[in-house]
Amino acid sequence: MNAAEVDRGLVRTKETGAARTTAARSFHSLRHTFTSWLAKADVPEEVRMKMTGHTESKTHQKYTHQELSTLRAGVDKIPSLTQSK
Fold first, then answer.
1. What are the start-end ranges of the E strands in 6-55?
2. Distance between CA atoms of 57 and 44, rounded to whole angstroms?
């Protein structure tokens, strides 16, 4: 993160009675974003996995977050159950 000059958004929190510094942005948060952007662009899962370095589909799916607009577009592709006359 430092080499890429990405601000980590460090926040001081108090968890279980002890003060702790956590990062709002990390390598993994960037990986989640990158993977999700690729999914939104309809990049096939096997290509996304190669680009992100994931070897297991189950792990990769945890990094892929679909936006509501993408889910709606998927629903719109379902054929209508009613027939037009």
1. 10-15, 18-23
2. 12
Distance CA 68, CA 55 (A): 27
Which residue positions in the chain have pLDDT lower than 50? none
Q: Using CA atoms, how far apart are residues 6 and 33, in angstroms rounded to an integer?
A: 14
**Residues with Cβ within 8 Å of residue 34, at least 6 apart in sequence:** 51, 52
Sequence-ordered list of residues with C-beta below 8 angstroms from that of 58, at least 6 positions apart, any chain = none
| Segments making up each domain of the chain, as ranges | 10-67
Model confidence, pTM? 0.56
